Amino acid sequence: MIIKIKLHQPLMDNDNIIGIDNSIVDIEEGLSIEALAKRLKLNPHAVVITVNKKIVPRERPLKEGDKVEIFPIVLGG
Amino acid sequence: MIGGYMGKLLKIDLTKSTVEVEGIDEECLRTYLGGSGLGTKFLYEGTDGKTDPLGPDNLLIYMTGPFTGTTVPVSGRHQILAKSPLTGIFGEGDVGGQWGVHLKKAGYDGIIITGKASRAIYIYIDEEEVKLLDALDLWGLDTFETDKKIKEKHGGNCVTSCIGPAGENQVLLANIMHDGKDARAVGRCGLGAVMGSKNLKAIVVSGKASVPIANPEGLKASIREVLPKIVENTKSLKLLGTAGSLVMAAELGDLPIRNWKQGNWNSVEKISGQKMAETILRKNYYCASCPIGCGRDIEIKEGPYAGVKGAGPEYETLAMLGSNCLVEDLEAIAYANELCNRLGLDTISTGAVIAFGMELYEYGILKEEDLDGIQLTWGNVDALIKMVKKIAYREGIGEIFGMGTKKAAERIGGLAHEFAIHVKGLELPAHDPRAFNSLAIGYATGNRGACHLQGGSFFFEKAARMPEIGYTEQQQRFGTEGKGLLNFHSQNIMGIMDSLKLCKLALYGGIDLTLMGQWIKDVIGWDMSLEELLQTGERIFNLKRMYNVGCGISRKDDILPMRILTEPRKDEGTGDNLPPFGKVLKEYYEIRGWDELGIPTKETLRRLGLLETGVEIGDYDH
Lengths: 77, 622
Known about the structure:
The complex is a heterodimer of chains A (about 80) and B (about 625).
Chain A: E1 2-7, E2 23-26, H1 33-39, E3 47-51, E4 54-55, E5 67-72
Parallel strand pairs in A: 1-5
Antiparallel strand pairs in A: 1-2, 3-4, 3-5
Chain B: E1 8-13, E2 18-23, H1 26-32, H2 35-46, E3 60-63, E4 77-83, E5 90-96, H3 99-105, E6 110-114, E7 121-126, E8 130-134, H4 143-154, E9 159-162, H5 165-168, E10 176-178, E11 184-186, H6 191-197, E12 200-206, H7 216-233, H8 235-240, H9 246-252, H10 273-279, E13 281-285, E14 295-299, E15 309-311, H11 315-322, H12 330-343, H13 347-362, H14 381-393, H15 397-401, H16 405-412, E16 422-423, E17 426-427, H17 438-445, H18 452-455, H19 483-500, H20 513-524, H21 530-550, H22 562-566, H23 582-592, H24 602-607
Helix pairs in contact in B: 1-2, 2-19, 2-21, 7-20, 11-12, 11-13, 12-14, 17-19, 19-21, 19-23
């Protein structure tokens, strides 16, 4: 199953995940957003993930053609 | 002529019902910038250690900054200052929204209010006139109703700064609310009680004039350059608001849980920014000139809290009314948040004093009969909501809790002080010095009491940088080294931002001292060196300190609650860590040019130009 992933600054500088920015990725069916974050060696609570520009529940399985964007959380407020 | 300022101040005496317009000279503006700095100067000159915060002689000062009302990103802000009735020392608050922009566009940089009206009034200001109007029909209304009624009378273009019943009742936790349902708060220090003590319900402003800009083309170019970076680096704030960091804060050991006693809490995801976005979020709210949009606009359509509509809870509110009270119902917190906004209560201090009460109940220091029959158990939503109302109306136990944790502990006596988590009477905001060591000194020496936004050091232990003063990389959140110097720099920088009027969240977007200097040049027309800018921040901080010295503040007050200093959280984020204190405080005093009692030396005051501006250094021999 093919999805698209875009990583936003400063995630792109993370050595662990360089190489997949703006990439088309082949994943197994049923993989959740949270599991995808872990697959990318990201702390799911340290990032915000949108699917097709929307916030969706993290346990939701990804679908073919989904466009996933990942942003680092800014701590504060 | 310089840009950035309207060049006029309103001076209003409510006792005499007089309104005067005064000019401000350029040297004074350059020395204190505006906002917090200029307001501090006026507060210092007009009040002192003997002033009764709730008496007619206290001043209530509204100040904009030179960037307010311009296109400078994140500048739609203003400052309110007064001697705090909660702490008895220097009090101020910074707020975003639309109000400050309208005041500026009505032609004024600020308002200084003294005296006490003989009956309930409100002030109306536009480009043509300033009127003191009868507020009898507004008195008793909540802040949303007040805003609505004022708009019905004066039209939709005006914006309101007002108090709710808590301010009218002079509750020491009362805030000043802005922009109706958008609910922008000057929350801290009980400044709403000062407004109430003056019989002043609201200040309504409406303005359309342009703020003069020294170099419009230059300003446009510099904004164009930085804007994409601000937007990109703060996307998480746009998507989830400040609440987006709640779960991560818990993981780091930064989130207060169970009155700062507990390390881990399994329920944090139930009240997170992610959960809010999945359920009750309608859209973003943007302050004027803000490209970030961290504000939450929510609606609850069904269930026991149906009808909540407008501003949603921020990080601080979710922490203080939520995790710190072990409340794990997001919609209940949103309801309590709206209740606080309507009644005019600071959600940080209100949450803190209720958590304090819950712990006293747990240990049997307060019993059901002391609490008007309420079982104030951890996580008890109904009890939380009842307490909010009791505090606002000073009913029963609410009379005592409404004094804040410090005074409430004094009244309750016994061991109650052990559970009162405050510095100088101001309850700690929702960031833990055991997770970010530098916060310890920042809280202890904060001029309004414990405050992360006036200390600001932990921004640099996270994603913010300030290359001009050597902070090119993330600072370590633990350890001792450099924490005194970091606080010196960050407190001064926060003072600069509060005076120019810039939101601190923009530090994550790449706004730095160079850019501030550039915008000072483009907006005002001054060539201000980095050295002059930093010294201005240092001057402002020291003037606030000298105000507090006049109120009896010294080293003995620069301390943290013993729970924070001696009890590790024992969680995954912080383990056994405790913030280093004595050594760092000593280092900090030395860097500041203060003596061993924490009082600025004559030499320091001379270097900052504060001796010449009339600061009295008292009887202590330097």
